[in-house]
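Reader question, answered in our methods column.
A reader sent in the components of a multi-part assembly and asked whether the whole thing could be modeled at once rather than chain by chain. We filled in our standard form and ran it. Here is what they sent:
COMPLEX SIZE: two components
ENTRIES:
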Amino acid sequence: MTFSTLRHTLSVSLLALASSLLFPACSTNSASADSETKLPYLGDRAMQPAPMAGPADTIFTVPTFTLTDQEGKTITNDTFKGKIYITDFFFATCPSICPKMQSELLRVYEKFQGDPRVLFLSHTIDPAHDSIPVLRDYAERLGVKDASRWHFATAQHDTIFGLARAYMTGAQKDATVKGGFAHSGTFALVDTQRHIRGLYDGMEPSQVEKLMQDIPLLLKEIEAEKQTTSR
Amino acid sequence: MNLGPLQWVRATAVLLAVLLLAGCFTKRKNEGARLYAQRCASCHGENGEGLRRLIPPLAGSDYLGQHRSSLPCQLRKGLAGEITVNGVKYNQLMPGNESLTDSEITNLLNYVQTSWGNKEEVWTIKEVADELKYCGGARGL
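And here is the structure of the entire assembly that came back:
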């Protein structure tokens, strides 16, 4: 083997080595950068006719709602205008998953307590029992003093169950389970445009960690949008 | 060593008995911890810590010593109304556990009595069965 062929072989193998090292790094980098900066849009998409331009792809939007919170105040979609919020479904006398679920949500609340852009909304699925004083007592016992940051809300039974479907949380009356209601411990993360951007199992600490990582990403996205619209 | 047919039968029987007995012990092993995880942990917490002023703690709870004799029936029948634990007032409905047998209640109680630094006096099945007479009677093992 001459010196030049050796050099050639060496440079070719070095190039191969470098590319094999670089290319996977490239692809994983771009993929993770993408998923890190932009959360997905969740829920059914529907092709709806737009007035001027034919059918348009619409992203699932949380329906309009009117609820009453633990202070007796009316809360609507406008209460969450310009904010992101995390929502779940519970009931005060729930002996099964609620305490665990609410203690997990409490972790999130305490982490983002200092950020007024992040709100919380817990719906009772037992409006017959969970009156406004019951909800107020529950919130206080949980250590939530500021009702404008974490609303514990009630409404007509049908309204609540319709919203549970909208937020993709299973909730239904079930006499066979303790407490009389079957429901999942799902947390939904909602953006300023009423779109669901994340669903998390509130019974799984690892998923709740994921939620706590996703919130800053969503906030960043919103700040970026604000800047482009103000330009 | 050459085993005759009778010895084979004997050896097999002994082996079977040992296996069955071991199976019996494995099934009941850590029963208290298992029942706690299934029936109590989602409210009282994995380490008996409770939840703020909503659910009372079991770890380091003065209630356990103060209300020792009512604990078996509370586990079976549940509890409603205000109680004070370590000076804090709680008022949350606790569901009963009607399907638990006397020995299961004993194991569950003893798990709580001796976990997370708790050093309460343990129960015998007989003691628990005697207390359960006040709420529907003994259910057997």
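What stands out: Helices of chain A lie at 3-37, 98-111, 132-142, 157-166, 205-230. Chain A has one domain: 64-230.
Send us your own complexes using the same form.
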